[in-house]
Write the structure tokens for this entry.
Amino acid sequence: MLRDLREADWPRRAGLAALIAALGADSIRWVGGAVRDSLLGSEVHDVDCATRLMPAEVIAACAAAGIRTVPTGIAHGTVTAILGDGPVEVTTLRRDVATDGRRAMIAFAQDWHEDAARRDFTINALYAHPETLEITDYFGGLDDLREGRVRFIGDPRARIAEDHLRILRYYRFAARFGGGRDPDAAAETACAALADTLKGLSRERVAGELLALLALADPHPTLERMRAGGVLAVVLPEACAAQLAALARLIAAERAQGFAPDPVRRLAGLLPPSPEVAETVAARLRLSKAQRARLVSAAGRRRDDGENPHALAYRLSVAFAIDRLLLLGSDARILARWEVPAFPLKGGDIVARGVSAGPEVARLLQTIEARWVAEGFPGPARVNQMLAEELGTSAFRFD
């Protein structure tokens, strides 16, 4: 059963009331994720607003009301209103004039239905009156929400031809909202037939959708359908059936041990344990330096990593060690609240014992640090004892 939008907190925000007063209740509608997620009882973060007003009119009306605006997407009719309780994107009603699968040429419109018709999925085309919160549903989105069904608006092939990224968006939305019924057959067929069009998209857009899908609670069934339809092979050919099975085990391990889903860790689960492959994928998807480092580290996992989790975390970092342990099916909970200790011995401590600064100091530091890690990070007294033991067996003579 869907929630009543009037029970949600966000429509009562003071900033939104000011925006309604500035633009006029009959000229705007709340639309998109805030409406959809509120009906499902999910937390709402961003609020989007559709309006009949032209961008210049939005800016002028907001200015008159003392509301600052930023022209974040002015070419496509979007102005962001900066409100005390969060920014709101205000977008003029639009219709597509021409599309090439990557970008669209739009014209401004005055008809709510026309604006709804250019959106991707029925569940994203729900408009709420800002005062009454009455919902206008042009394409059966409310029924689709109730049934856990994700459908394109109109002909799926035509909608995908307008923006090829909608293939990946479809799978992400299906994984998040489509748990109630079997997947929409027309959508699945269209996505499979047009999978190769994804090759023409920017790698950043593909990576963003892929990571967003992997961040969901359980993307495994959806990824299996993507593999069966030939879609996964286009965006991540390394993800064979065996790696999908590995991902399923990783998701189970995360749940059993209380770790939140992590998209980079899960991406590593879809790849063979090969740093070279991880480097290639990170470059192809244009991941950030931090994401690349984490992916490559996870790909370097070894069967013996679980034998001494604390030593592994000391060597790599706690986050990297947790990734490896979960991917190996080992218990990572021992590291969940563990803080990496600082090695209590410095080079100056060794020099103070009579060792000349240079390679011998570095060797002693490395030797004692290795013993310290192997013994489970004992305190300074034991470290000093180790130093005395090493110096006592040294070929050097000290006064």
About this structure: Residues 237-340 form one domain.
